[in-house]
Amino acid sequence: MNTSFNLRGMPIVERPEDAFDCLYGSRLDRMFIGDVEVLGVDHTLLRPASEQRQSPAGAPGLLLEHADGQRNVAAIADVLGVDAGELVDVALELRRLRLLRWAGIPRLHTPAYPLPQYEPVLAIGFRVGGSAQSGERP
Deepest of 2, 5, 53, 132, by most Cβ within 10 A of its Cβ? Predict the structure, then answer.
């Protein structure tokens, strides 16, 4: 079976770096790259970090206020008196919204979307809204 591999609102995974980003941004328990199995992470041990200056209300705001990159999700959950698993869900959503990142995990270069290969091309070979490709007429 072959299915698409991406998170809500994100393009299909095309590179190993994208696959790891998906693994850290979801509750996947494992993934395979070729014949190599990569186990998922325990998100409660990851250290959330945020440079967000204005925090939303409720659990997202409380998490962002405590996301200093030093304490892990489990420790922050203890301080806030909430379930660590539920706080992981909040952290994953904030990460998807790019309001939070995992400290100690390299940031990926995020290309501008849509990627050129997904831009519509007219039947005569010109890109819609873009410049002509080399070898094509201007």
Answer: 5
Q: What pLDDT, in 10s, does the model give residues 31-80?
A: 888 888 999 889 999 999 997 767 778 888 899 999 999 999 999 999 99
Give the end-to-end CA distance of the chain in Å, rounded to a whole number: 43
Nearest partner of 43 among 88, 110, 93, 94, judged by Cα: 88
Within 8 A by CB and 6+ apart from 8, the residues are 96
> What pLDDT digit, counting tens, does each position of 73-88 carry?
999 999 999 999 999 9
Q: Which residues contact 113 (CB under 8 A, 6 or more apart)?
A: 11
| Coil vs helix vs strand at 30 | strand
Q: Where are the domains of the chain?
A: 16-103
Residues with Cβ within 8 Å of residue 6, at least 6 apart in sequence? 12, 13, 22
Cα-to-chain-centroid distance, residue 80:
25
